[in-house]
UniProtKB/TrEMBL annotation:
Species per Swiss-Prot/TrEMBL record: Bosea lupini
Signal peptide interval: 1-29
Protein name as catalogued: Glycine betaine/proline transport system substrate-binding protein
UniProt key word Protease: no
Record-linked InterPro entries: ABC_Gly_betaine_transp_sub-bd
The entry's keywords: Signal
Residue ranges occupied by any ABC-type glycine betaine transport system substrate-binding domain in the UniProt entry: 39-329
Pfam families cross-referenced by the UniProt entry: OpuAC
């Protein structure tokens, strides 16, 4: 028979155990702010390194307890779905290129963080370093000289590899060739960009002249390293067609491989970035997601490496997941700190 004092002691232990379990449950709920919730996450159909970051973001969200449902669609459709509350988040919206379309939905959606690329990406003109050094070419404006232009073509005009027909970057190039008075000496070559650039890379590797438009991060700037095999040619002034949005000056500081060592380097346009956009109601209800995304960004060389691998090996789930796994394994402390920031936001 248990004495009264013994019964009291049992009840006390039981109450303490219940309190501990309650506190443990509360702590677990706080540690997993996404428990029982789903993030409807969109990735664009661009088939690039954004697929790798989408996997890293998804895994971070899952660490916070969220289920993640990924949809692949173009950015225009994402904006419509986010405004209607049918999708919650995307982290690969090209800004400022997509800014006009975003302004149409900014009452229902908002920008989160400062972009997924540390320092932002750049766009501009490049030539092989061998020719640049031999002929002291340090500016795009020098291509007005027929003798210099002839180095990059077979009929006295330079062949400039431009973007695919229909790509807005090609419109920028054509506008600038006209604006800078280069149409008489430079021919804009618009075809299948990837195919044209494979030959351009081969030319540089063979020690032959090459002249092309590119952006970074991209596989091109992993295959041909600015400052080592190619150089960026500064443009003479800021100039964009009316239909292409811009944000700030095309003078970009710290561009590696700018011809003549110019810093800042005047690129074809101001820096761009992969921005994150979320439905306003969703992000207001999920501060852990907001804080997580605000922390996440990756160095430009990392992006270029991913782009190079995708160009070489394809954008299969196996290749994308391998790169995401490798990055998380090699940067576990950074990844864990991002997740902790999300947990601490609640």
């Amino acid at each position: 028979m248990i004495s009264l004092s013994a019964k009291t002691l049992v009840k006390t232990f039981a109450a303490a155990a219940l309190a501990a379990a309650t506190l443990q449950g509360a702590a677990l709920a706080q540690a997993l702010p996404g428990k029982g919730k789903t993030v409807r996450y969109a990735q664009s159909d661009s088939l690039g390194a954004n697929y790798v970051t989408a996997q890293i973001v998804s895994r971070a969200l899952k660490e916070l307890g969220y289920d993640v449902k990924i949809s692949t669609l173009n950015t225009t459709l994402f904006f419509q779905a986010a405004a209607q509350g049918d999708l919650d988040l995307a982290t690969d919206v090209n800004m400022p290129q997509r800014e006009p379309a975003f302004r149409a939905v900014e009452k229902q959606a908002e920008l989160i963080g400062g972009g997924m690329i540390v320092g932002g990406g750049v766009n501009g003109y490049l030539i092989d370093k061998k020719t640049a050094t031999a002929h002291n070419i340090t500016s795009l404006a020098q291509m007005k000289d027929p003798k210099l232009a002839a180095l990059f073509g077979k009929d006295g005009r330079a062949d400039l590899i431009n973007c695919d027909p229909g790509w807005s970057c090609g419109d920028v190039v054509d506008f600038q060739l006209d604006k800078f008075g280069l149409k008489d000496t430079v021919r804009s070559v618009r075809g299948k960009y990837e195919t044209l650039m494979v030959e351009a890379v081969a030319r540089v590797k063979r020690g032959e002249p090459a002249f092309f438009y590119a952006w970074s991060p991209s596989w091109v700037n992993n295959a041909l390293i600015p400052g080592e095999e190619v150089v960026w040619l500064p443009t003479p002034e800021d100039a964009l067609p009316p239909n292409v949005p811009n944000r700030g000056s095309a003078l970009v500081p710290g561009v590696k491989g700018c011809a003549g060592g110019a810093d800042p380097c005047r690129m074809a346009m101001a820096s761009w970035n992969w921005a994150s956009v979320a439905n306003k109601q969703f992000i207001a209800a999920n501060p852990a997601v907001k804080v997580l995304i605000e922390q996440m960004k990756f160095p430009l060389p990392t992006w270029s490496g991913w782009e190079f691998s995708i160009n070489k090996n394809g954008a299969s789930s196996a290749n994308v997941n391998r790169m995401a796994d490798e990055w998380i394994s090699q940067n576990k402390a950074t990844f864990d700190s991002w997740v902790k920031s999300g947990r601490d936001a609640v």
